Every structure is written in C-alpha cells, then in structure tokens.
Amino acid sequence: MQKHENGTKESAKDKIYSTFAAVASSMGYNEVHGRIIAALLVAGKPLSLDELCKITRYSPGSISLSLDLLELVGIIKKMKNRGDRKLYVKMEGDLLDGLRKAFLFKLKKETRSTINEFDKYKNNKEMKKTINILEKEIIRFDKYVDDLSRVKLPKK
Q1: Which region among 8-22, 100-114, 119-133 has the lowest average model confidence (pLDDT)?
Q2: Based on the domain organization, do 59 and 126 belong to the same domain?
Q3: Which residues pair with residue 23 across a beta bridge?
Q4: Rounded to an integer, what distance in angstroms lies between the CA atom of residue 88 and that of residue 77?
C-alpha cells in the first residue's frame, strides 16, 4: 500500500478508482467525478451522500457540487427515499453517452470561444492573414466535432 499526502494508506481499490478517475479526467471531468462514477458502478445500487464521501474521500461540498454536473449531463440521478432525509444517488442513463455529451460540449465551447476571439482581430491588417488561416482550421475542426456527435455508441 502507498501513502496518501494526508498519511493514510492507499488501498488497491483506491488505486483502481484513481485509474478510472484518470480516464474520466481525459474526457473533461475531474477526479472526483470519476471516483463518484466508479463508486456507483461498483456498488450497483444507489448510494447516500455520506457513503460517497466515505468511498471517495471527498468532502460533502465537493461531492454535492460534482453531483450537480453529473446530473446535468444525465449520468446520475439524485433522489430521496420516503421517511429518510438522506440524499441518494444512482446511475442514470448511459455512462458513455453522458461522457460523450460532456466531451462534445467542451469542444464546441472552445471552438466558439476561439472564433469569438478571432473576431476581435479581424480588422487588424497585420493579423488578417493569420486569423484567416487559423479560423479555417477551427471551422474545419468544428465540422469534425459535428461529425463525431453523430457517431453511434457501441452497445453495452
């Protein structure tokens, strides 16, 4: 077992969750998102906020904030049980589809931002040629992202 920065030992399960979280990070999520998803997948059932905090070793605030994004992209669903005040979370929808949506959203946002930035310099004679060359590539990339959005996901 390796030690965490806080001195606690890292178990094999922690390492596996970290590895899964790294994959989620490559798709535009952060580590806590990946750990939440891993915990829910492994549990195979809804988990309470307290359980997620214990499993992931993140604070309730970090978990709660991360759950909002995961719910927004349709990966999880938050709920409460009757007679119980605890917040529970369960996997919802298709994980790969949720990851894809978030990834494509991030790419589209970046291309829009870049084109908007280019627009600021279009009247600058010194930058006109540079902007035109780069803008053509960004537009080409944006079309490619549109094509990617139409690719069917593999079946489970």
Answers
A1: 8-22
A2: no
A3: none
A4: 8
Residues whose CB is less than 8 angstroms from the CB of residue 132 and which lie 6 or more positions away in sequence, other chains included: none
Per residue in 56-100, pLDDT tens? 989 999 999 999 988 988 889 999 988 888 899 999 878 788 778
CATH of the domain at 81: 1.10.10.10
**Domain co-membership, 24 together with 87:** yes
Q: Which of 76, 93, 110 is the last residue in one of the domains? A: 93
On whether the CB atoms of residues 76 and 70 are closer than 8 A, the answer is yes
C-alpha 56: how far from chain center: 16
Which of 21, 1, 4 is CA-nearest to residue 12? 1
- 39 near 47, Cβ under 8 Å? yes
What global pTM score does this model have? Answer: 0.68
